[in-house]
Each structure stands twice: as structure tokens, then as C-alpha cells.
Amino acid sequence: MNGTYSPEVATAIDLIWKSFNKEKMQQGYAMLEKAANKGDADAFCYLGRCHMGEEYVWCGGDFDVDEDRASQLIKESVRRGSASGVLCALRNGNLTPGVMRDMPFSSVKEAFSEILDQAKGGDAFCLYMIGNAMFWGDYLIIEKGEADKYNDEEEYNEFAYPIAAEYYEKSFDAGLSCAFGNYRTIYDSGLADIDEDTYEEYFQQLADNGDPLVCSDFGKYLEDEYENREKEALIYYRRAYDLGDKRSAYNLATCYGRGYGTPQNLDKAFEYYNIAAEAGEPGAMFELGNFYFEGRGNVTRDYAKAVYWLGKSYDSYDEERRWRPAAELAILHQDGLGTIQDDDMAYRRLSEIEDIVDEIWEPLDAQVLNALGVAYAFGRGTDTDIPRGIEYFDRAIEYGSEEAARNKAMFKKSIFGRWSRR
């Protein structure tokens, strides 16, 4: 409760949250451990943040994600009088009544005021935390009675977002990029007076400062917002990768895959998809599976590897994007390609994409339509519904599917209009 960080903690924070360099981040972590051993309350807080995952610290530092350890460290920082620990505990649910009873602050507001004073003094991380308190609504808990002023979340955001944006911008100017995702949300909301030029200047500034995640996002921004900046976008994608963001290899791969900003090179695309997939990027896992499913470029078709990577992609994607691997997995399971033939599993995957089958790319659209026809006409994985199956065969035939034509030929229609097996 001295109102400022010790020199050791201040230096460690800069090393861990500004360097984006594994060796420097590990050096900063060692400094925090040493300070904690001497009883530095803030050191406990920031040690805890190091173990809370990539939402709290760049994954390139290779810190173990350990929520229990993080919780213990942050609670200990509160008990020892870290104002940063109080705000962090409030944000992640560790500020339990028992912890509050043990803290030397009279209230959460007292701890907030201490961080606010440090923020006014220009401390980058405290500027970030004040911005977060406003952005996430923690301010409503800190300032009792404040919640009564707002009828809903929208009204609160109209008040809080401009304040949060101001603190975030000051943290950017102080060299910290942690808040840019929240800043982007504020910009997109239109609830703060952030003009497009200011937004783009901060975006590029933080990318050029060496944050690999912002660097990769800025490349995507250039790709999406401009028609003639392909080479610049590629430069930022490559810079992000060179800075250690292995997932950004996915963006490099897509550039090589479609010849964006560089000549098309499917072998290079496959190489970078491999790197990004191993780093846990779901889109790259899907693309690897697709390479093996189709046998693209110089990659030999390998259904077993296709099942492996498509399955990992399916498990890693959110529901909105899961349909992409589901479409190919349905074919593989129905035909027993690279895996045990499984009609039930095939139909489960088909049922996930049946309503959006028109969005599936060529030539897979014809295969999926045929697979739906097989499921319904032959009763494979679902109840038999020959007319429905024939409808899908007909749609697949329109796409040029000879297999669907052969399948349809196995049925006949009576003079009364009823379909049956021949």
C-alpha cells in the first residue's frame, strides 16, 4: 500500500508485457519471483497474471496456465496489500468475501483510487487497469450507487466507453498494447469519439511496436479494408510470424494459397498451415485436413490424416464455423475413408450442415448432397425417407454428380408416384 510499484516489479512488468520476447519475459518472471520472496505484494499479483492464460499474457512467454496457482497468488497479493491485486481479483472472480476481510484496504474503492493515482502519474499498466474497470463494468462495483444511474448495459457503455478509450489510448502511448482488443470493441460500437484515422494510427503504432498479435491483426485490417495493400498486409503477417506468433502462420498460408500479395504457392501454404495447426489454430487444422482430403498441390491424398486434422479442427472451432470440417467428415464417415464406416456419425455431421448445404464449396457440395441422399434414401443413420433422398440425389445430379445418378438408379417410381428400391 505504498502507491507505486517497486523498481523490480515495474521493470518486470515492462519485460513481460512490452517485450514480446521469451527470454526477456522469463527474466521478468524471475524478477517477480525474487520480489515475491521478499514480500512484495504486487509481485504476487503479476506472478498470478502470468499463469492465467493468453487473455492475460502473451503465450510466447511459455508460462504454464494454472488457474489454481494464479488464484492463490492473486489472493495472496490482496492480503498483502496490492491494489493491483484487488482490481485483478475483482476482474477474475477471486475477490471473495473472505479475501476482502483479510485485505488491508477499507474498501475496493480505496484500492481503485491508488491505481488511479498511479495511472495519473503515467504508469502504463495502471492506465490499462483503469480502462478495464470502466470497460468491463467493474466500476459499478467499485463506486457504490453508480449502477442505479443506468437502465441497461447500453446506457452504461455510453458513459464508460469514452472514459475507457481515453485511458487505453494513454496506455498505448506509454508502450502497452494489452487493451487494443477492447479498444477495437469500443471503436466498433461507435459510443466513443474515435475517428477512423486515430484508430488506424494506434493500430499501426502498436503493430510497429512489436506486438505480434496486433501485427497480425493489422495485416488482416489492411486486407479487409483496402483493395491495393496486399504486399503491406503480407509484410505484417510475416512480421507477426517472425516475432514468434506461430498461429499467424495461418495468414501467411492463406496468402500463399490464393496468391495474395505473393505468387501462389500451395507447397508454401501447406508448410505454413502445418506450423499454425501445430500451434493450435483451428482454421489451419481444417486446411490441413482439406489438403489431405482433396490431395491438393504436391500433397498426396491421405484420408486417415484428413480425419485426424478435420476432427481436431471440429473440436477446436466454435459452433458458427464447425460446419466446415463437419462437411468433409460426413463424407469420410459415411464411406469409411480413413476411419471406420459409421452411418450414425455421418448423419450427425450431415444434420449439422443440412440447412446450409448451399453454402458449401465446389466440388464438395455435390458430394454432401449425394451423402444426404444416401442417408435418407437408404436409411443410413436416420429413418428411411426415399422421396427426400431422391430430392437430394437430383440436386447432386444438377451439380454433375455421377455417383448420385447411380444411386438414384437403384430406385424406381410407381405409376402412383411412390418410390421404392428396385
TrEMBL record:
It comes from the Bacteria. This is Tetratricopeptide repeat protein. It comes from Heminiphilus faecis. It holds the Pfam family Sel1.
